[in-house]
Amino acid sequence: MTTYCKISLNSLTAKEVEVGYKLTALRNLFGSTSVSPHLPFSRSEFFQSSRQHSQGMSISGVQQKLSLKENDHRKLTPTATGGEYILKPSPESFPNAAENEHIAMRLSTLLGIETAFCGLVDFADGELAFITRRFDRLDHGRKLHQEDLLQCFDIPSDNKYDKTYEEAGKLVLEVTGGKKAVVLDFLRRVIFSYLIGNDDLHLKNFSVQRQHGNTSRYYDKLTPNYDCLFCDAFNTNGAEKGSGQLALGLLLDPEDGDEQFSEAQQHYGSYTGIDFIELGKRLGIPEKPIIKFIDQLHNKQADMLNLIHRSYMPEAMKERATALLENRLRALGIISLKRQAQKAL
Ligand SMILES: Nc1ncnc2c1ncn2[C@@H]1O[C@H](COP(=O)(O)OP(=O)(O)OP(=O)(O)O)[C@@H](O)[C@H]1O
Ligand SMILES: [Mg+2]
Question: What is the CATH number that goes with domain 144-344?
Answer without folding.
Answer: 1.10.1070.20
